[in-house]
Write a structure and sequence with these properties.
single chain; alpha/beta; Rossmann fold; 7-stranded parallel sheet
Length: about 260
């Protein structure tokens, strides 16, 4: 059975109904590792057809192949380096989506990048720009590519991977994540029309991902949740049970910041 959201029931333990994503076309960014990879496996198991977006074809290709082996769908991937992609790269990606002749039912904006924790006064400009580009500008550009195809879906949704980290030394990543949350809230209002696209966020931190482990090397990785343990809220916002819910940012650990 599926579990609806309500005051007495945490989405941390949401159980999606079998085949609730059957034949839905879902685009996941940052799909080759961490939360994106765990989410890809879960969505495929629930019947979705996937387009996996990431930087490294060497990681995406075997992942898509493995997912396709145990699925009725031939899952696809698209390699795009969000740190250096320019306008023409996104135009090319948008054309690829149109030529695929598929609607997009859900867009999961999960890709993230952080080189190191450091004070703002110590940031090099190239590091600042790359961090802002991947975490703030690329979601905007991907939305521009995908919204026309989301509008063709009968039940479209956008899900952001958010992160409450407005603390010292989170630098450009913290700035970009704050801006990303503002983008999510604005977009939810803009797309809440006659044929709405629901827009929500999931803040799963802290999770056992490369970003977290790289910046907190002295902490036992087992102290952080595994990616597989934090994807239930994503599945809720992707799927039909969240119909009518938009502008929500769900925190798995409400008291945790950073």
């Amino acid at each position: 059975m599926s579990t609806p959201i309500n005051k007495n029931n945490s989405l941390n333990t949401y159980k999606p109904k079998k085949d609730c994503l059957l034949n839905r076309h879902i685009l996941i960014t940052g799909a080759s590792d961490g939360i994106g990879k765990a989410l890809a496996y879960a969505c495929a198991e629930l019947g979705a057809e996937l387009l996996l977006l990431g930087k490294n074809e060497s990681s995406l290709s075997p992942l898509a192949e493995d997912l396709s082996k145990s699925s009725d769908h031939d899952h696809k991937y698209y390699s795009l380096d969000l740190g250096i992609a320019g306008e023409q790269d996104y135009i090319k990606f948008a054309n690829y989506l149109v030529e695929s002749n598929k609607v997009i039912d859900s867009l999961v904006l999960n890709a993230g990048y952080m080189e190191a924790m450091q004070g703002i006064r110590n940031f090099q400009l190239d590091t600042w720009l790359k961090t802002i580009t991947i975490n703030q500008h690329s979601p905007f550009l991907l939305l521009k590519c995908c919204i026309p195809l989301l509008e063709l879906s009968d039940d479209p949704s956008i899900v952001f991977s958010t992160h409450d980290c407005s603390k010292a030394y989170w630098g450009a990543y913290g700035v970009a994540k704050s801006a990303q949350l503002g983008m999510m809230e604005i977009l939810a209002k803009e797309l809440d029309g006659d044929k709405p696209i629901r827009v929500n966020g999931v803040d799963p931190a802290p999770v056992r991902t490369k970003l977290r482990l790289t910046n907190f090397p002295g902490i036992n990785p087992e102290d952080f949740a595994a990616p597989e343990d934090v994807i239930a809220p994503y599945l809720y916002f992707i799927g039909p049970d969240s119909k009518g819910t938009t502008g929500s940012n769900y925190k798995l650990n409400p008291e945790f910041v950073g």
